[in-house]
Amino acid sequence: MFRVIASKMIVPNMHLLTLAAPAVAREAKPGQFVILRAEEEGERVPLSLSDWDAQSGTITVVFMSIGSTTGRLALLAPGASIPTVVGPLGNATEIENYGTVVCVCGCYGIGSIFPIALALKRKGNRIITIMEARSSYLFYWEERLEAISDKIIHITRDGTKGHRGHVGRLPEILRGLEEPVDRIIANGCTFLMKRTSDETRPLGIKTMVSLNPIMIDGTGMCGVCRVTVGSVTRFACVHGPDFDAHQVDWEELLQRRKTYMPEEVVPLRTSRCEERHFRSQEGKS
Amino acid sequence: MSDPEKKTLDLRRREMPKQPPEVRRYNFNEVALGYSAESAVEEAKRCIQCKKPLCIPNCPVEINIPAFIKSIAERDFIGAVRILKDKNCLPAVCGRVCPQEEQCEKTCVFHKKGGQIAIGRLERFLADWEAQQRELEMPEILPSSGRKVAIVGGGPAGLTVAGDLIKLGHKVTVFEALHRMGGVLIYGIPEFRLPKVIVTREVEYLRKLGVELVTDFVVGKTRSIDSILEEFDAVFVGSGAGLPWFMEIPGENLNGVYSANEYLTRLNLMKGFLFPKYHTPVKSHRRVAVVGGGNVAMDCARSALRLGAESRIIYRRSREELPARLEEVENAEEEGVIFDFLTLPLRYIGDENGWVKAIECQKMELGEPDASGRRKPIPIEGSEVIYPLDAVVCAIGNSPNPLIGATTPGLKIGKKGNIEADEKTGATSREKVWAGGDVVTGAATVILAMGAGRFAARSIHEYLSSL
Ligand SMILES: Cc1cc2nc3c(=O)[nH]c(=O)nc-3n(C[C@H](O)[C@H](O)[C@H](O)COP(=O)(O)OP(=O)(O)OC[C@H]3O[C@@H](n4cnc5c(N)ncnc54)[C@H](O)[C@@H]3O)c2cc1C
Ligand SMILES: Cc1cc2nc3c(=O)[nH]c(=O)nc-3n(C[C@H](O)[C@H](O)[C@H](O)COP(=O)(O)OP(=O)(O)OC[C@H]3O[C@@H](n4cnc5c(N)ncnc54)[C@H](O)[C@@H]3O)c2cc1C
Ligand code: SF4
Ligand code: SF4
Ligand code: FES
Q: What are the pLDDT digits (tens) for A179-237?
């Protein structure tokens, strides 16, 4: 069992969870993820590592509460335990001295890009962080990112902070920079990553994304996480999760992510009380 | 016993009751129900106790078959269990899934005349009988050697090594990537063929013997073999053949196209058939095609049937070449799985939303035997057919996961991604590292994995004793 050290809603619907997982904390590298289960009957869900501390043996994930598992994770209080935390999975993000790197992030990606940006900074890169959200009150970890960024730019749908709009404004923001950009890294929801990719392809700037297809085992055993990159099938959990954005078949990824849409709403509609009833009838299994 | 040679041979194999096909195709409960004590004793009495029993050498773990059968005939079930467990630590599993017809039962003297002794069924009976007794007999455990062994993978190979070495006084830790021990026995083989309580029982037994079981631990990711060797005296790698193959034909990434591993893992490990009580969703499909002809394909097709779908097997050779166990093929046929032999998938056809809606296949005919000795299927021009469906399960094979090889410098890897290990000892190219089971042989059988584990355990023990 893995103990919850801290649990907090940091902005509406966005949660931070710190867990005791010393073996994972010891090996974690920027860009890797864990798979966890919220309870014995639970699903296995992948979440990126946003922070870790090898000394205290803890890891931190940031997630949006959208479905049954993230919903349950959001309700955990410090002292509670969950049955599975396995990792660190996937390959670490490539960290080199590229020159100037733009880190585009939104949603949970604001958390997961932090360790990547930090490592890139330490490697001597100039870091320009572009944060996107619906509204200014949905930004978090701003001080953390400010501390390691040479420049920080905000985009909000409602214009309450920085540029108004969404990541589609990327080209003009990049044009406005006084320096050439050597690499772009995008973390967050599929929409944000795809749009970033669409916008940077014509500019010819190498863009890396951290893909988030459906996963089960995270070790290359089930193949559900397959994505097409440069017309070859790759398993995101073992060959990724980072891929060259301009090579990704985004339509396929978006379509594959929808596979269980109709089913995922069932547990949300099933109240816990009904479930308990179900369980007592099923005593045998 | 009287002189066995003089006895007239009783060729009537005692039948084992099964759930009738029309009932079982709607549930996930075990198909075969097992012998009663009476039937077991009757069956055991048929064995003529050969002086040079031909059954034994064809059992990969060399169980003293006549001896345990004799004890059953004498109703000494405890004695029989002891003989069995001396060589096989997972009898309830082997009695159910061993390809007995190809092994021990094939060389039984009765085989030529028909009516070979039902060794597997007797084995299963004993294991189940023992499980019903209130107190399990605990084996003797030698005093601590002070040596530590790490085992990678909680499948039959790894569990066998663990069981053997703990009894010899070594400290044993098993590291398993998934959240449950058992390997394919837990995530692959379905409940209706191997109830998960049986696997759990065997795993709990090892825990009681003192084996430390660590789940959620991916060796090569959570910790490398080199780092493990700083703390342990030896490592056994039994990580199986878990990497699924696809056909590499158009449309394979459409929604509704699964690998057998995904399909079975959702159902077995994640208990998707109990959704939404268990939270991992399983789609309900109307028409499912399973591509392949092995045990894995049969398991997928029979699972699809139980989830309410029309289920068909698409196999490129003919019925004679099916690699699955005959018993499972017959079970599948009885339950209503449709078989399309001599049929090769060419492409999957999707609808406008990216869901598979049909499969296009080509009919084949059998030509000359190929390298495997089986007649080679040759496409028949212009014989393309299209089947409408809403899911496809690809069950054409697996190979070892490259993770351990990629993260263990100096570990020799063969052409097919398998770890190279000595057949007799399991020794690899790396000092202090042994390997066995599917990771060495490629996808094979439970009993061969256990046999490899047994050899490796012996070799590891010799090594530890020499330190
Ligand atoms: C490598 C990897 C890293 C990831 N890292 C993170 C992370 O750090 N933080 C995080 O919040 N998520 C992350 N995700 C996504 C996360 O795994 C899913 O959001 C999660 O599985 C949802 O689980 P659930 O049971 O709560 O929802 P489900 O009940 O499984 O899903 C509910 C419904 O929402 C849809 N859905 C799923 N994900 C999203 C999404 N992101 N946006 C909109 N709709 C969605 C699903 O299709 C489904 O229909 C990552 C995914 C991968 C593969
Ligand atoms: C659906 C299906 C049906 C089958 N039916 C039969 C049958 O009827 N009869 C029969 O004899 N055989 C059958 N087999 C084959 C049989 O199950 C295998 O040959 C046998 O399980 C191999 O045992 P193993 O211990 O080598 O590997 P596995 O059982 O594959 O176990 C390996 C374990 O190692 C774990 N692992 C992998 N990598 C790592 C890592 N890096 N770190 C930690 N853990 C790791 C895996 O999660 C897994 O639990 C079937 C197989 C399948 C898939
Ligand atoms: S372990 Fe398998 S081969 Fe050996 S006796 Fe039992 S059923 Fe036969
Ligand atoms: S070969 Fe058959 S009859 Fe002879 S001892 Fe073995 S099981 Fe009995
Ligand atoms: S999650 Fe199963 S292979 Fe990637």
A: 899 999 999 999 999 999 999 999 999 999 999 999 999 999 999 999 999 999 999 99
- Predicted TM-score (pTM) of the model is 0.92
| Interchain pair B177, A23: CB under 8 A | no
Could you give the CA distance from residue B220 to residue B227 in angstroms, rounded to a whole number? 10
DSSP state of A161: S
ipTM, two decimals, is 0.90
Token pair listed for B176: 């398993």
**Residue B310: what pLDDT?**
95
Tell the residue nearest (CA) to atom 6 of ligand 4. B55
* Domain CATH for B115: 1.10.1060.10
Domain residues for the domain of B101 are 3-131
Q: A interface mutation test: which of B258, B265, B279 has the most A CBs within 10 A?
A: B279
- Closest by Cα among A111, A110, A146, A143 to A128: A146
Residue finishing a domain among A61, A89, A117: A89
Chain A interface includes B242 (CB < 8 A): yes
Q: Give CA A272 to chain center in angstroms.
A: 28
Q: What percent of chain A has pLDDT over 70?
A: 92
Q: Is residue B267's pLDDT more than 60?
A: yes
Asked if the C-beta of A267 comes within 8 angstroms of chain B's C-beta atoms, the answer is yes
- Per-residue pLDDT for B137 more than 80? no
User: Does residue B221 share a domain with residue B99?
Assistant: no
Q: HSE (CB half, 13 Å, CA atoms) of A146?
A: 6
Give the CA count within 13 Å in the CB-facing half-sphere of A164. Answer: 3
Q: Please state, in angstroms and rounded to a whole number, the distance separating the CA atoms of residues A218 and A234.
A: 13
User: If you take atom 39 of ligand 2, which residue's CA is the nearest one?
Assistant: B239
pLDDT of residue A267: 53
Residue A201 located in a structural domain:
yes
Within this chain, do residues A63 and A192 fall inside the same structural domain, yes or no?
no
CA of A102 to the centre of ligand 3 (A): 62
Residue A39 and residue A109 share a domain? no
Closest partner residue to A222 among B221, B262, B281, by Cβ?
B262
Query: Closest approach of chain A CAs to the CA of B72, in angstroms?
Result: 31
Position B355: which residue type? Answer: W
